[in-house]
Amino acid sequence: MLGKGSARNQLVAQIAAAAVVLACIGCGKDSYITATPGPDATVEFGDGIELIAPGDTLIHWFEDFEPITYQNRPALRLRELVGDELVAQPELYGYRLIGIDGFYANMPGKGYGDNTWEQLLIGYLDLSDFRVIFETERDPNLRKGHNVKWLIRVELLRSIDVDWGAARKLAPIAELEATTLPAGYDAEGEPAVPLTAVVSYSLPDDLTPEGFQYRVSARSGAGLPRLLTWAELETAYYLLSEDRVVLPAALGSAYALEEPWRIRLEGGGE
Q1: 62, burial (CB in 10 Å: exposed 0-12, middle 13-18, buried 19+)
Q2: Interior CA angle at 161 toward 183 and 121, to 5°?
Q3: Dihedrals phi, psi of 106, to nearest 5 degrees
């Protein structure tokens, strides 16, 4: 059966040996060996992957999927392997692929961003060594570091996509500092994340956020009535309990947006 028996044991031994060698010689720019321990998964390496969403956890066993041939090796399509049964709107989540060594593309020191639902369409899991392979030539936002080795876990994180034209990066809401909505909002006192924190998380340091305008949209195609300046964006919040963006109540109901998906930067930026 795929991933079981002596072949898997040999691969685990090779991973351990590689960790020792790389720990001695130091890690390169896209090294897969980390200084932190890997995840304490509930599935044995080589048998399947653990899928963790905010409200549920599943295990997908490799033997339950039909392999294809990719680059002359047995593989599984990543979108099919991850599936969409854990969340109602998979497009609203980032997908954090984690190796048995603890490496993931968006980890501190890398910061390449979690994968989008769309990117999973052009990703594969090589069943010979359990390495993720993306067709990086089809998406300029994909980096070598997204090709995670020794996949063991995928975490689904509610995220907002920040797009500044030249590139884009997901901002995972749970990793941003929340505050409480001030007076003047319908949900005053409720926990919320400022949209400026969402943008600041994703935007490169060489871009000046005050120079842009911001188009906030939902996956449905709906959006706020107009572009926001940075000063106006400072009054916009993601309401954690209701999955929506809110602005001061005095602006009216048109300035609330259910299931926000993307913040697109337009103009300026110098």
Answers
A1: buried
A2: 150
A3: -100, 15
